[in-house]
Design a protein that fits this description.
- The mean pLDDT is about 95.
- The chain has 2 domains: about 30 residues; about 230 residues, TIM Barrel.
- Helix 10 packs across helix 11.
- The protein contains 11 helices and 11 strands.
- The strands form 2 sheets. An 8-stranded parallel beta barrel has the order 1-2-6-7-8-9-10-11, surrounded by 7 helices. A two-stranded antiparallel sheet has the order 4-5.
- It is an alpha/beta fold.
- It binds magnesium ion (MG).
- The site of magnesium ion has 3 residues, from strand 2.
Length: about 270
């Protein structure tokens, strides 16, 4: 009787295990769609685009990643800014032609000084949740780009942050350089002009295109997935466009509206 009970209980345990595995496999096979805060969560109070506050606030809302733009100053310091130029006391300065000490005098909209990558990474080390999506900006000369990517990768490796960082760029040179210097690092191409097959041949992790490119080429999402590539899309800010991209089954949505996008994703679960 005891044996019979133990056999029965083994059968029951197996049955439970199979049921559990069945539901778990559903949970893991469900497409996970993730949010990346474009230039950080800059719409929050006290924040500004590409500020350290925007990074910390993106981490606080628990999205997948926070995007940031990186340039090389004229004296070889990786610095954070979106545009090619900054305004300092009414004067327009080209980031790649200005030394870091001058760039640091620029104030962001929330009063923070323009950060260097080093300062940004000091803050990122304190983040608990997010990945950092580093956009390498295209420069005038390949030499500057090569110096920038080499320095950025070294800084990230020196801090042991490589598993928490991904790269994106409009520049093919940057994609190739990241592949060469850090073959393990995921790198995505932004420019929208190359098919998933070409991206795969370059060794990139996937495409990261403007949403209109995917609306024109909806088959590129499935093609990417069939090739083992991921699909990120920018910069998707309206509920209508977010829904279109979720329907297309993209993996990541880069947005200035991280909370709204997260909510739209959660509503579908
Ligand atoms: Mg960017």
């Amino acid at each position: 009787m005891e044996n019979l009970f133990s056999i029965n209980s083994t059968i029951m345990n197996r049955k439970n295990l199979i049921i559990t595995l069945f539901f778990l496999s559903f949970a893991f096979s469900a497409t996970s769609q993730e949010v990346i805060a474009h230039r950080g969560y800059w719409k929050a109070d006290g924040s500004a685009q590409n500020s350290i506050a925007s990074l910390m606030k993106a981490d606080a809302i628990g999205v997948f990643g926070s995007e940031v733009d990186v340039w090389l100053s004229s004296d070889g310091v990786p610095v954070i800014n979106h545009d090619a130029d900054v305004l300092l006391n009414g004067e327009k300065l080209s980031v790649q032609d200005t030394p870091a000490a001058t760039l640091k005098k620029v104030k962001l909209a929330n009063g923070e000084p323009l950060p260097t990558l080093e300062e940004y990474l000091n803050a990122f080390e304190k983040c608990r949740n997010i990945k950092l999506i580093v956009e390498l900006k295209t420069h005038r000369e390949k030499k500057m780009e090569d110096e920038l990517v080499e320095k950025v990768i070294k800084m990230i490796h020196d801090r042991g942050l490589q598993s928490r960082v991904e790269y994106i760029s409009f520049g093919i040179n940057f994609v190739n350089q990241v592949r060469k210097l850090d073959p393990e690092a995921p790198v995505y191409y932004l420019n929208g002009d190359l098919s998933p097959r070409v991206i795969k041949a370059m060794g990139a992790a996937g495409i990261d295109y403007h949403f209109n490119v995917l609306i024109k080429n909806p088959n590129w999402v499935k093609e990417s997935h069939d090739l083992g590539l991921k699909v990120n899309v920018w910069t998707v800010n309206t509920p209508e466009d977010v829904r279109k991209m979720l329907d297309l089954k993209v993996d990541f949505i880069t947005t200035d509206e991280p909370l709204l996008t997260e909510e739209l994703i959660n509503n579908r679960k």
